[in-house]
Amino acid sequence: MLLWFESFWNRLSHNIEIARYCKSMPSLEMRLSKGPAAATSTSFELPSHGSIPLSDIWAGPTFADEPAFASFLADLVQAALGGEVLLEFPPYKTPHISTPGVWNLTGDAAFAAEFPLSWNYLNPRSPNYELKRFQRRLYLERLAPWLEHLPKGTSILDLGGGIGRFSEAWMQRGWNVTLADPNNHALLLALSHLISTGGRFNIYHLAAEDISPLPDEHFHAVSAMEVFCYLSEPRTGIAEAARVLRPGGWLFASVESPIGALEPHIRHSREAINQALTHDHRAIENDMWVRYFTPDSLRAEVESVGLEVEAVIGTHYLPDGPMHHLVDVERLGESGYETALIELERLLQDSQQWQDAARAWVVVARKPQ
Ligand SMILES: C[S@@+](CC[C@H](N)C(=O)[O-])C[C@H]1O[C@@H](n2cnc3c(N)ncnc32)[C@H](O)[C@@H]1O
């Protein structure tokens, strides 16, 4: 991915790779390489490759609360999103994802190209903003009994973190976030969202199947929301999450249930319904791949890598679930309305009759001490 960066730094005109960014550290490293049109008028020597500290380029203070620094980085990201600069994330090699899981990335890229604002759902102007935000709130409510015990400074890996929906929430708690995702365009959006959130974060271009650049027993927690069900072999990703957890560390993950096979927004043919009733997965070549979990199969996968399951919780009965027609998306954002929906979700989750109609399962598991 080599893109030209011209608007913000138009006199410089060279390729830039951001190697690592942590807003509160002055040691942001950028990998710079001269492009064919390099005509530099900068006060430092451009190395032909390698890295250079940001402080050599940016003369001002590089602290978290320095607005000019944040705005400099935000401009850089905007230029990258506009296709004018290369931002590359460690470990500087393309993650390898096998078929069929890789179809999700192809499908996402096509969706992002056609509906960029829908895909960037952390942007308040996105048509998906309120729904995605509310769904995050729902997850956080369900996870609250565990999250509230994790203090400021908790180190968390947001695996398959996408454009940063959960990383943003973790940073707002004062946690140190590492976001990993194989979709580099998502990482650019995550960079822009997390810059404006403020706090400590790192971003890695990695697939869950192989996060070997991240050390063993390093994180207090791993979140993988709506991720493992999209892997060709979910267990490889779950095992990697377990590896990087410290003893006593927590895994918070969610996966799709078979209800997802009958997505509420599509009209079903007899063939689609039959497929949904008889298969534990759904595959559309070059578009999507998902494996559906039951509470038992989710528990079994997580236990198979040595984690202890504390809870499997049903969620998304209403938004994007089988009772989606009860949600007035226009009213999301009204605090009383959202609270009522969350209570209704709780009733469904506790009900013997409806429990299994969850659209998603959340698992909370712990690495043994
Ligand atoms: C439904 S999105 C969820 C994103 C984010 N966790 C959230 O809840 O907003 C699924 C994410 O999984 C990522 N993904 C797909 N295949 C993956 C893989 N093999 N390893 C890690 N992440 C993957 C996608 O790039 C995407 O960001």
Q: Quickly name the level 1 CATH class of the largest domain.
A: Alpha Beta
Domain unit count: 2
**Name given to the CATH architecture of the largest domain:** 3-Layer(aba) Sandwich
Radius of gyration: 21 Å
Content of β-strand: 15-25%
State the helicity in percent bands: 25-40%
> Per CATH, what is the topology of the largest domain?
Rossmann fold
Q: Which residue ranges are poorly predicted, with pLDDT under 50 across at least 5 consecutive positions?
A: 1-14, 34-43
Q: Ligands in the structure?
A: S-adenosylmethionine
Please give the alpha-carbon distance between the first and last residues. Answer: 42 Å
**Number of helical segments with 4 or more residues:** 10
Q: How would you sum up this structure, described in words?
A:
Strand 1 and strand 2 form a beta hairpin. The strands form three sheets. A seven-stranded mixed β-sheet has the order 6-5-4-7-8-12-11, with helices on both faces. A three-stranded antiparallel β-sheet has the order 1-2-3, with no helix packed on it. It is an alpha/beta fold and 369 residues long. 32% of the residues lie in helices and 20% in strands. It has helices at residues 67-81, 102-114, 116-119, 129-147, 165-172, 184-197, 234-244, 270-278, 295-304, 335-350, and strands spanning 15-20, 29-33, 51-53, 155-159, 176-181, 201-205, 219-225, 245-256, 281-284, 288-291, 308-315, 360-366. It has ten helices and twelve strands. Residues 1-14 and 34-43 have low confidence and may be disordered. The protein has two domains: 15-81, no CATH class; 102-366, Vaccinia Virus protein VP39 (Rossmann fold), CATH 3.40.50.150. The protein is globular and about 65 Å long. Bound molecules: S-adenosylmethionine.
